[in-house]
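> run fold DUF932 domain-containing protein
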Amino acid sequence: MTQQFAERATDVAPTGARNAQLPDLVRILEDQQRHKLDVIAPASALRLREGNVHVEGVESLITEDGVTEVDGIYRPTAVADEGIADKLRIPLAYLRRMRTGNVPLLDENVNAWLSQEPERRFMLRAFRGEGGPGRPAEGVARALLSDSYKLMDNFDLLLAALDGVKQSGHPTRVTGCDLTDRRMYVRVESEAVAVQARELLRGYRSPFDGRSGDELPMISAGFVITNSEVGAGAYSITPRAVIQVCRNGLTMSKDVMRAVHLGGKQDEGIISWSGQTQRKTLELITSKTTDAVRTFLSREYVEAKLSEMEDAAGKRLAEPTKTIEHVTKKLSIGAEAKDMILAHFVQGGQMTAGGVMQAVTSTAQTLTDADQAAALEALAVPALTAAAAHG
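> ok
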């Protein structure tokens, strides 16, 4: 599968990757670390001007007279706009309409609500831009969060999690990574733990190359590491089985292990995470990851999950189109994705509830938006249950 990378501008850290290799993800995260600015500021120090977030006195400008503190200027992402709408209780649809059609009105609305509670404090997560002599840099506003949000950065957590995998002593490999404005995803697989799934894959063929599940009936154990730096979800490790014939992934969301981003109030100003606090948090992440590896990458776990799915997966569908209509409506899957799932179902050739599950996961592989792909893959097992119940 192809790798895709996205940058917001040439002078700001890269912000995205799809189906990247681990070294590429590490390079992007290292670059982001160099550009990060996290600041606790009262509402009185925040303003919107021409649609950009201004933060009083957090940047330094080099002039002939020396170094001067100036306002930081940051272009909001869609995630940051969601945070602004949430924290100021502005309807998101209205904020988006102002963003696209009337920016002066957007400035007026946001600034009016900020002035209502001048002492209220927020955490702004941003990327600094690369300015020049006498020229202030424009960066990126990534999120507006509560001042009690606990920083758990992707780079640090990734290293801690990989250390936990290493300490488990289990042979694994990273098979793909995604990075979006919302989340990081790192998929880990162990081909050392593979079991036969003949009943689950009977009659199935890959929609990508036509290979047969009867000839390649193996599924292997794995998990996905997920984190959000912008309030879009907890750090988590979710078990994930990988089907050999098509590389479809089945995430077992109900068994997820989470670490929530909650902490105490922090002082105003630029945030520096203390070494002791950071060390304790990362040690806990390493330990939890080691435990998760030992649980999720065991033959017993995979066989138990396979057994749970096989009975439902074998149920033949009398009217597949109506079943897929029912399943996608029940799971709030949009019309475009529904049509793709139906096409993948037909190509897969498995006229059962299991075929619906496979069609959901293979469709997820084709989506360019990593957040949408992960959300759809997480619906595969619920889709199996719903399809089997509908018949």
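The first strand starts at residue 4 and ends at 7.
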